[in-house]
């Protein structure tokens, strides 16, 4: 029963772009993930600090060789319908997430599981995935090789269970109000597109007694300046971020409410290697990369609310420092001279300038960054850039098609604190590889790293993989993220963490 709004403890959250879906196996954006983690729960979860914690599984054992994980479900685990969550529900979710026929967006994260890659490639049926339910309360997962970060994977939406009766009844339309049955702390009651998404407490959740917030309202916006205005007007209790152009003002005016923290995320431009002008032209890609002043973007344009990036992997990865090519420390004059030489070698000049299309999804910050990068390319190389701004869903669709893009904006947020969380998105077989990067050498290095249990040797393999990326330049790294949230003083329980994952069930609202 839903309580009257005035009697509830209501959290109002700014949530960035409109979610593309609330199907845990179909979503790919951060805004969708924020909501899905309230609606569902994996075998594992994350503590407020970001550490692995128990989720629907109260305990687990790992075999001596690190390849077999046995999970024991909590006796009180229930769907929002009141029915018991079973081990078969988790196995069904994993199989659906790996099944190419189901159209899941993120099967690659399950790659450590035995046969997962063959299932996702259609070479084996889903029931050959290395996950079984010997009884209603036990899930056994076999891995292809030991994987240090595997417990983190099981807190990701791609591993979440599925309520099979509604999947069978509604198909892919099950993730809607009145149809979505989840096992998380909240349940979906309203979704007004481009307006708000409303969740209320799932009274059948196993730990509902420790949940304090009755109702959470997620408000989508692609305009961070408008989100900031709503926060200042008292219409939001949390923001998804802050507008970079106002970072200094926010620090001065709302500093006590600003949470600025290290975040495992990288903002970069992808080059479409499947079509002109970037196919087969590494010199051109390197020239464009060397012509960009990351320090100017991160320090001045973004007002210190980001860190300059020269590689894909962000700082803060345990046991792995971020990459930095030699030219990153060159004087600007030397760097620009080398960029011009590479540009000429690629076949371009003042008389024959590169004409390129740069796409980005709707956001004032994305527009400002693209304008500055285009200006750097024009002033230093003579490049003529056409900027194309697209709504989020259209933008993602065009990126995946590859036939519609040349250079495009990408951001990637790590799903777990391990180099593989970033490195794998440029594997030739990865569904997130919108760049069409295909390097057998790079793929082989990642395969070797996956099979390597020794931490220093594994780190060395990832370092070689980053060197390969630097040589091939399928991407142009621009900056590494800092998480940037405004949080009202009366919100208790907020804890900054490198993955920037925050469950509403861990928060409290004091009277205000």
Explain what you see.
The chain has 512 residues and is of the alpha+beta class. The protein has 2 domains: 5-217 and 487-509, D-Maltodextrin-Binding Protein, domain 2; 263-483, Dipeptide-binding Protein, Domain 3 (Dipeptide-binding Protein, domain 3, Roll), CATH 3.10.105.10. It contains 15 helices and 18 strands. The protein has helices spanning 30-39, 87-98, 116-120, 150-153, 164-170, 224-232, 247-254, 282-290, 294-301, 332-345, 364-381, 392-401, 420-423, 440-451, 455-472; strands at residues 10-14, 44-46, 52-54, 57-62, 68-73, 131-135, 138-142, 186-192, 196-201, 215-219, 258-271, 306-308, 355-361, 384-390, 407-413, 475-486, 491-492, 508-509. The strands form 5 sheets. Strands 12-16-11-15-13-14 form a 6-stranded mixed β-sheet. A hairpin with a 5-residue loop joins strand 2 (44-46) and strand 3 (52-54). It is globular.
Protein traits:
four-stranded mixed beta sheet; alpha+beta; single chain; D-Maltodextrin-Binding Protein, domain 2; 512 residues; Dipeptide-binding Protein, domain 3; 15 helices; six-stranded mixed beta sheet
Short description:
This protein has helices at residues 30-39, 87-98, 116-120, 150-153, 164-170, 224-232, 247-254, 282-290, 294-301, 332-345, 364-381, 392-401, 420-423, 440-451, 455-472; strands at residues 10-14, 44-46, 52-54, 57-62, 68-73, 131-135, 138-142, 186-192, 196-201, 215-219, 258-271, 306-308, 355-361, 384-390, 407-413, 475-486, 491-492, 508-509. The protein has 512 residues and is an alpha+beta fold.
